[in-house]
Design goal:
Blueprint lengths: L6 H7 L3 H26 L3 E8 L4 E6 L5 H21 L7 E6 L2 E7 L5 E8 L4 H18 L4
Helix pairs in contact: 2-4
């Protein structure tokens, strides 16, 4: 008796376009997360960061201490929208970045200028702002390269 393969089963085992797209998405997510981790590793005082889309959904994140990515994304998106609206009203041009100081630290919002994505950074009050901004520039460039816009 000759072996006759089940074509449906065999076809399911072969890579499909959906598999390629999923592996590409996984690779992009891994690379973005590594870039976010490098920001924290290279900047004393940074305890979290996230790439967020224009609708406020977190795409990739590296957050410590039980911080919820959805809360960070929502706060970032809300502030970004308010800053963007204010810059339009005041005729200051398009929003690019913002750093908000709180009693216990900072929240930074930096537009990636790619696919309506932006970077949100959380840092403690002890962070060196110049170090943060310099490392942030490097991470923004890396994220843009990963996303194909740099």
């Amino acid at each position: 008796m000759a072996f006759e393969p089940d074509l449906e089963t065999e076809a399911a085992a072969l890579p499909t376009e959906d598999d390629d797209e999923e592996s590409t998405q996984e690779r992009l997510l891994t690379e973005m997360t590594q870039a976010l981790r490098s920001l924290e590793a290279n900047t004393k005082g940074v305890f979290g960061s996230a790439v967020v889309d224009g609708d406020g959904f977190p795409i990739a994140w590296d957050l410590k201490g039980g911080t919820q990515q959805s809360s960070v994304a929502l706060l970032g998106a809300t502030l970004r929208e308010q800053l963007d609206r204010s810059s339009t009203i005041l005729d200051l041009g398009d929003f690019s970045s913002g750093l908000v100081k709180f009693d216990k630290g900072y929240l930074g919002i930096f537009d990636l200028k790619t696919d309506d994505l932006f970077l949100v950074i959380l840092a403690g009050s002890q962070v060196n702002i110049m170090d943060l901004l310099l490392e942030n520039d490097a991470v923004l460039r890396e994220l843009k390269e990963i996303l194909g816009g740099g």
